[in-house]
Amino acid sequence: MIVEGCKHEIEISVPVDEIARETDRVVADIQQKVKLPGFRPGKVPTNLIRTKFAKEVREDVIENLLPKYFQKKMEEEDLQVVGRPSVKDVEFKEGEPLRFKAEFEVAPTIDLKEYRGVTVHYSEPEVTEEDIAKRLEEIRDQKAQYVNIDPRPAADGDYAVVSLDSLSGVDKPIHQDDMQLHVGDPETVAAFSDAVRGLSPEEEKDFEVTYPEDYGQKNLAGKTVRFRMKLKMIRTKELPDLNDEFARDLGDYQTLDDLREAIRRAIFQEREFLAQQKAKEELIDRLIETHEFPVPEAYVERQIESQVTQQIKELADRGIDPAKLQIDWAKLKEAQRPKAIHDVKGSLLIDKVAERESINATNDEVDHEVQRIAKQEREPVAATRKKLQKDGILGRIAYRIRSEKTLNFLFEHARKEAAAQNKEEATEESATETEE
Fold first, then answer.
1. How far apart are CA 384 and CA 260, in angstroms?
2. Is the pLDDT of residue 372 over 90?
3. Alpha carbon distance 341, 158 (integer Å)
4. One domain, residues 85 and 151
5. Which of 80, 148, 153, 158 could tie 107 with a disulfide, CB 3.0–4.6 Å?
6. Winning range, highest mean pLDDT, from 22-31, 32-41, 207-216, 261-270
7. What is the pTM of this model?
8. Backbone angles phi, psi at 205, to 5 degrees
9. Is 60 helix (H, G, I), strand (E, B) or coil?
């Protein structure tokens, strides 16, 4: 009987003769283990065991027969159970069948509609000369040399190497020996630029810094700190020349044009990946919109737990102890529910398409991922595989590969439209060309 959505309730009856057989087996098992005064091991009369251990016998019979007959009933009804069933209304009287009710959830039946040709917004990314020039400048900046210059007063544009000590305003003293400041740069706290500007090497200055409430370092946020700064030296940044030699120093490039082409491909691949990811997310949204089906609560709860665990990990990675935060966990989990339902529906639909299209992860694909992890962890491949298998991660790797392949299949067969902005630009360009 369907209660609601994926929830089912069923009444199961265990025949009297099956109860008798199981009772005899339980009694025999207790007989082998029990030790009673006056009886040798294994020789306690069965009628004495039935009387003396009636409660234990009853509990063991129920514990053994309930899952067995529940599983048998599920196979008969061809139901795919998810999560753990809840047993209630157990009736067990001598000489009568054992009756009980079970509440459980089943995997939803999905009537798969058309999934090829789903419309998504996607355009091939463009890479301009300006993009390439900007990336080149970033690389050039990374390869810059900082050269010490003769002593003089520090000015905007200089790179000042200073020692810094806090004098007041913080609980734990701050000391930095060789801090480099880019004088006058927007990224440099203005008070530091103001303090060092005009100082010559070996000169000192005391000054105050008032940090904003939302400052990134929690120990400084909202505080006014008094520092003593000593200018140690002034440097200037020398950028390498953009030429063929610069390209050769970076890797397997013969000319600057070779490097520019490699940069163009890299930027294109980055943008293509992001654009495709966005289109694939939209594709899943469209599939969810066109498929209405209930979702088992067990799946939703599992997904919520996964999302909350990920959020806790992100907080910990940022140095925040979740235990010290006043988090209403019930409220947080409830807020995660809509996303969890969406993600579970998406996964179930991807699984259904994979099943329909016979898409699976090959052994070679799984092996390749294991080798990548082994290389990353600097471990032998065999040891990595054994560990992944033991932790149950190997199956998850195969599942993820299968899902990615299915999404790629759906994207390949999707109907791709340019985004509204791109369509307007294309219309304007077409109009201009017509006028010309």
1. 39
2. yes
3. 55
4. no
5. 80
6. 261-270
7. 0.74
8. -155, 140
9. helix
